[in-house]
Amino acid sequence: MRFGIFYEHQLPRPWTEGLEQKLFQDALDQVELADRLGFDNVWEVEHHFLEEYSHSSAPEIFLAACSQRTKTIRLGHGIVLMPPGYNHPARVAERIATLDLVSNGRVEWGTGESSAWAELGGYGVPVADKRPAWREAVEQCANMLAMDPYPGFNGQYFQMPARNIVPKPVQRPHPPLWVACSNRETIKLAARLGIGALTFAFVDPAEATQWVEDYYRIFKEECVPIGHAVNPNICMVSSFGVHHDAEEARRRFQQGFRFFQFALGWHYGFGEHVPGRTSIWELFEKAQANLAEGQGGIAGAAEGGIGTPDELRAHLKKFESCGVDQVAFIQQGGRNRHEHICEALELFAAEVMGEFKEREAERVAQKTEALAPYVEAAFKRKEWMAPLADADIPKVIALGRQVAETGQAPAQPQRAASRAAWREALEKAEAKS
Questions:
Q1: Fewer C-beta within 10 Å: the chain N or C terminus?
Q2: Would you give the DSSP letter of residue 293?
């Protein structure tokens, strides 16, 4: 298996001067350490307005900083919010390509839609539209990265004329695609579209086996790639905390992971939040005091990644036996201390990671060979976006020239205009020249 570290950039209240800055600087130090230790991935979320739970609203900037302090670790968007209400697809394509260039081809392109009302409502993304908007945006963004020029698009959720999106990424046709999966149905969707499943459900190994079996059965039978390349991989997010003394490991990391789960539930499931005023940490402490051990979904299999090296090894072998490709560790949660996180990363790398790494190259080679005929069949089912013939690429007439020749700025075309309407407008402008 491969191993990653996962960041929400959690910051429980109360917030003191300089605490947010320290949070980000500590995280950069941790990523640099993980790179030296041989970790495979760093995953960085995109969330907006989710106080205390996640202060990671500009992952492309954090990952760009990571790219300049590391050499081999892959830089994972875990995820980019793809509905156009959050990010225009062309801007996503430009940022993904640029990050791939400055990192020398190390980007993993995770995608998602969000289920937090603070985000959806804040950006005006209708709940009913978020899944189809995600799908439309992902497909077109992949086309933008791969095609030269992009032919333009008149969709339900965004429109744009023919343009050549630059720069292009190092990894062609585009970096590996992933989607955030919080339930079994999204795993199935990932398989149908030929993209990696980045799972956040904290399922036990028995349930994980079913998820993996679903994924590869559907990939083999039904996959129609949404992108120009497939990424048949499954990454499962896990709790993390390791120390030679099991009780010390739990003392250092258990509360942080439980806050992670509580704050997640608060923003996504049961909370009533007053922006800028609610203290989730205070609510968590009150709730924790009233819960017996094992209640409230905060203990058990979800905390299997916290313990001694031997306990963590056993936990990971269960996922390895299921066919999971990568485990991403939530090491930064609640008030987990920077020095404890670094010590745990070093201990894991020294005593656990090596044996899994030894088996990785052979596993990947066997899997690639076994899936090859199914990948070929999947691409035969795909309907490709037709490129424009050179004669059909519309000219973009400079604004200054249009003003000079007509005496006024051109009217803004309607956003819902079809490609034919765009072309007609350009032909009229060209006829006047």
A1: C
A2: T
Position with higher pLDDT, 427 vs 319: 319
Q: Exposure of 324 by Cβ count < 10 A (0-12 exposed, 13-18 middle, 19+ buried)?
A: buried
Q: Which candidate, 119, 109, 241, places its Cα nearest to that of 172?
A: 109
CB 192 within 8 A of CB 123: no
Q: What is the pLDDT of residue 416?
A: 41
Contact 287, 323 (CB under 8 A): no
Q: Is 144 left (phi over 0), alpha (psi -120 to 50) or beta?
A: alpha
- Among residues 175, 174, 200, 176, which one has the least CA distance to residue 187? 200
**E strand segments, 240-294:** 241-242
Amino acid, single-letter form, for residue 426: L
pLDDT at 413: 59
The secondary structure element, H or E, covering residue 153 is strand 153-154
- Preceding omega of 84 cis (within 30 degrees of 0): no
Q: In this structure, what are the phi and psi dihedrals at residue 307, rounded to the nearest 5 degrees?
A: 165, -150
> What are the pLDDT digits (tens) for 90-140?
999 999 999 999 999 999 999 999 999 999 999 999 999 999 999 999 999
Protein fold of 2-381 = TIM Barrel (3.20.20)
Beta bridge partners of 42: 5, 75
- What does DSSP say about strands 107-112 and 74-81: parallel, antiparallel, or unpaired? parallel
Least Cα distance to 57 among 13, 106, 11, 102 occurs for: 11
The string of pLDDT tens digits covering residues 163-181 is 999 999 999 999 999 999 9
pTM over 0.85: yes
Cis peptide before 14 (omega within 30 of 0): yes
Domain ranges (residues) in the chain: 2-381, 394-432
